[in-house]
Write a structure and sequence with these properties.
By secondary structure, the protein is of the alpha/beta class. Helix content is 43%, strand content 20%. The structure holds 5'-O-[(R)-(carboxyoxy)(hydroxy)phosphoryl]adenosine and zinc ion (ZN).
C-alpha cells in the first residue's frame, strides 16, 4: 500500500510517501528563517507559507519517490493538535486529492505520529513507555498497543521544548532556542548553576518547567558573572535529569521493558546520552527515532496512517481539523 501524508500543524510544510513500511520520500520545507524575524511563529505568516510551499513540496516528494499521484492508494494529513489555520491547509489538500483520485482519506493525530515514530523501521509498535518531548507537549504515555494508550502524566505549564526556546530567547540566542542551547551547552559546565529539578521526586508523572525558566531569568542581571555556555549546560542538565528520572520510574512502575522517546527535544544530544546510560543501568531498551523523524515531519504521519489503514480504518470526508485534538480521550 502506498500512502501520501501531509503535515502542516505548525511551522513545517511536510510531505512523505511510504510504500508498506518503506519510506520513499520525506520532504520538509522549514519556516525557521521566516519566523526568526519575529522570534516565534505568527499563525497567519505560517499558514500563508503552507499555502505557498505545499505544492512544490508535494511535487518534490513525488519526484524523490519516483511515482505519480495515480499510484497513491490513500491520502493522510495531520488533523490536530496544532494551529487551526495551518492544519486546515494540509487537511484540505489531502481530502481534495482523495476525492480527485477516488482513494481513502485518513486524519492523523500529530501526537500519535510523534509517539510511534521511534518504532518505524524497527519491527513496529509494541508495549512501551512513550516519552513525547516537543515544542508544545511533554508527556509520558503507557503504550499497550496501537490506539491503546494511557496518559501517565504531562507538563502542568511549559513544554520541555518551549522552555528551551524561551531560555534561548532570554539568553539572546538565535531562534529556535532548543538546538542552539544544545550546541552551546557542549562547551559548558553542567554543574556551574544548580537549577531546580521541579517535580523530579513528586509522586506522579507530571512535569513543570516554568520555574526553571524563571530561575534563568533571575540570573540575567548577573549574566556578566557567568559564561552563557555554562548557563545552557546547567539548564539543559536540569531538564534532562527530570525527563530521564521520570521516564525510568514510569517504566518500572508499569513493568514495561522499553522506553520510546520522540518529539523535537529528543534530538537533544545530552538527553540521548543520559537516557542511554540510565536505560542500560536499569536493563531497559531505548528506542529513539533518527533526528529527521524527531522534529515535525510527514513520515511519522504516514507511518500512523499506514498502520491504521492496514487495520481497516479511514476517515469520512466530513472529518474536520481539531486544534485541541487529544491523544487519549
Ligand atoms: O516536535 P517538534 O518539531 O514540534 C512540535 O510539535 O512542537 O519540536 C520542536 C521543539 C522546539 O521547541 C525545538 O527548540 C526543540 O524541539 N528542539 C530541541 C533540539 N532540537 C529541537 N530542543 C533541545 N535540543 C535540541 N537539540
Ligand atoms: Zn510536533
Amino acid at each position: 500500500m502506498t500512502v501520501l501524508a501531509i503535515e502542516s500543524s505548525c511551522d513545517e510544510t511536510a510531505v512523505a510517501i511510504l510504500r508498506d513500511d518503506v519510506l520513499l520520500a520525506s520532504e520538509v520545507a522549514s519556516q525557521i528563517a521566516l519566523h526568526a524575524a519575529t522570534g516565534g511563529v505568527v499563525p497567519e505568516v505560517a499558514s500563508r507559507s503552507h499555502l505557498r510551499m505545499l505544492r512544490p513540496t508535494l511535487n518534490e516528494a513525488l519526484a524523490t519517490a519516483g511515482i505519480g499521484l495515480g499510484e497513491v492508494d490513500a491520502f493522510a494529513a495531520t488533523r490536530g493538535p496544532g494551529l487551526a489555520t495551518s492544519l486546515m491547509i494540509g487537511m484540505a489538500v489531502a481530502k481534495g486529492l482523495a476525492v480527485g483520485f477516488g482513494k481513502p482519506f485518513l486524519g492523523v493525530n500529530h501526537m500519535e505520529g510523534h509517539l510511534l515514530s521511534p518504532f518505524f523501521g524497527k519491527g513496529g509498535p509494541r508495549p512501551a513507555i512513550g516519552l513525547i518531548v516537543s515544542g508544545g507537549h511533554t508527556m509520558l504515555v503507557d503504550i499497550a498497543d496501537i490506539a491503546d494508550y494511557r496518559l501517565l502524566g504531562q507538563t502542568v505549564d511549559d513544554a520541555a521544548g518551549e522552555a528551551f526556546d524561551k531560555v534561548g530567547k532570554l539568553l539572546g540566542l538565535p531562534y529556535p532556542g532548543g538546538p542552539n542551547v544544545n550546541k552551546l551547552a557542549r562547551d559548558g559546565n553542567p554543574k556551574a548553576v544548580d537549577f531546580p529539578r521541579s517535580m523530579m521526586h513528586s509522586d506522579d508523572f507530571a512535569f513543570s518547567f516554568s520555574g526553571l525558566k524563571t530561575s534563568v531569568r533571575y540570573l540575567l542581571p548577573k549574566l556578566a558573572d557567568f559564561a552563557v555556555a555554562d548557563i545552557c549546560a546547567s539548564f539543559q542538565e536540569a531538564v534532562v535529569d527530570v525527563l530521564v528520572a521520570k521516564s525510568i520510574r514510569a517504566a518500572k512502575s508499569t513493568s514495561r521493558d522499553t522506553i520510546a522517546v520522540s518529539g523535537g527535544v529528543s534530538c537533544n544530544t545530552r538527553l540521548r546520552e543520559k537516557l542511554a546510560e540510565a536505560c542500560k543501568k536499569a536493563g531497559l531498551q531505548l528506542l529513539l527515532a533518527e533526528p529527521s523523524l524527531c522534529t515535525d515531519n510527514a513520515a511519522m504521519i504516514g507511518y500512523v496512517a499506514s498502520l491504521r489503514l492496514a487495520a481497516g480504518e479511514s476517515s469520512p470526508l466530513s472529518t474536520d481539523i481539531d486544534p485541541n485534538l487529544r491523544l487519549v480521550a
